[in-house]
Write a structure and sequence with these properties.
By secondary structure, the chain is of the alpha/beta class. It has 12 helices and 13 strands. β8 and β9 form a beta hairpin.
């Protein structure tokens, strides 16, 4: 059965010295310090150790073949978003990343699908780059972060980006980044195990209660990591709307239940009962396999949880493995035969 991994990350093997190119700031660099190994550096500090499967397509394909993954959906590593940067610098950097990603996809069009990145801190430029991604580079859409500085995803400045995505038929995949309250999460890997789920739930609530989904009924928007903490706290969120509409229905009068089947999520929950909750909440047509390859908090091999759940009927399994991803990305299975 065709298996599509909706959630994987890639970066170039090298890139120019961004601090020299643009001036000072929290620019990311890559330090190749051992064979097949590198360190992602942020402003001179080690952010993460990575292997060459993060940049080398041939290694990715070897591991896909080993694990039974037919297609990977490629998106950049969120630390590269650089929404803090000056608008023109962020735009130039996004173009560089997208040109690289499109080249990888073009070299293996039956194995890779691409989601570009945009300078979300400059919405007009983000719309321009989104349009280029879809109409010139052949990418299926974009990956964006859960916020832009102090802007949540319901901020009016960002609406034109979502509006353009709807008009272009582009998928929008939301990935947590720059997690909230870092001063309180300096230990125990808390930014990744607590901050990311909270960020993602905040982003989902923003597009629901801010009326983004209501105003854009054809927008295809998906969320990484199983939608984060949203499914586990949905009961509280819905009850809050019912008992305090004066606080929660200020920008959209409709209850959150109206939008549950509008939200796409990946299946990266690491827990069978959590995945069953996603299927009950959003429906099988909105859940897609995603592994967060090639990072340690991901699922290895991709689809392991789905494969181990004997209670999934064949139709549900097919939706999880490829049907939902194809719909979200507006692709046809015949493209990957």
């Amino acid at each position: 059965m065709l298996a599509i991994d909706l959630h994987t990350h890639i970066l170039p093997e090298s890139w120019p010295d961004l601090a020299a190119r643009y001036g000072g700031g929290r620019w990311v660099s890559l330090e190749h310090h051992a064979p097949c190994r590198a360190r992602i550096m942020v402003d001179g500090n080690v952010f993460r150790e990575i292997d060459d499967n993060c940049w080398l397509p041939s290694r990715r394909l070897e591991e896909c073949d080993r694990d039974g993954v037919h297609v990977q959906v490629l998106s950049t590593v969120p630390v590269l978003f650089s929404y803090w940067a000056r608008a023109d610098h962020g735009h130039d950097w996004a173009r560089y990343l997208n040109d690289h990603l499109a080249g990888v996809v073009a070299s293996h069009p039956r194995r890779f699908i691409g989601l570009g990145t945009v300078p979300l801190q400059a919405p007009e430029l983000a719309v321009r780059e989104l349009t280029r991604c879809v109409t010139q580079l052949g990418l299926a859409g974009i990956q964006i972060g859960t916020h832009v500085g102090g802007w949540n995803l319901d901020h009016p400045a960002l609406f034109p980006v979502f509006e353009a995505a709807e008009q272009l038929g582009a998928a929008v995949f939301v990935h947590a980044w720059d997690m909230l309250a870092p001063e309180r999460m300096s230990k125990y890997w808390l930014p990744w195990v607590v901050g990311m789920p909270a960020e993602t739930s905040l982003a989902i609530c923003s597009v629901i209660f801010g009326g983004v989904l209501e105003r854009l009924p054809r927008l295809r928007i998906g969320f990484a990591h199983g939608g984060g903490a949203f499914s586990g706290t949905y009961g509280r969120i819905a009850h809050g709307f019912d008992v305090r509409p004066d606080l929660m229905a200020v920008d959209n009068p409709h209850p959150p239940a109206r939008y549950l089947t509008r939200l796409y999520v990946d299946a990266l929950t690491h827990d069978a009962d959590a995945l069953r909750l996603l299927l009950r909440l959003h429906g099988r047509d909105r859940v897609a396999m995603g592994s967060d390859y090639p990072f340690p908090l991901g699922e290895s091999p991709p689809g392991k949880l789905i494969a181990g759940m004997s209670d999934l009927d064949p139709a549900t399994r097919a939706r999880l493995l490829h049907g939902t991803a194809l719909e979200f990305l507006n692709r046809d299975a015949a493209e990957f035969q």
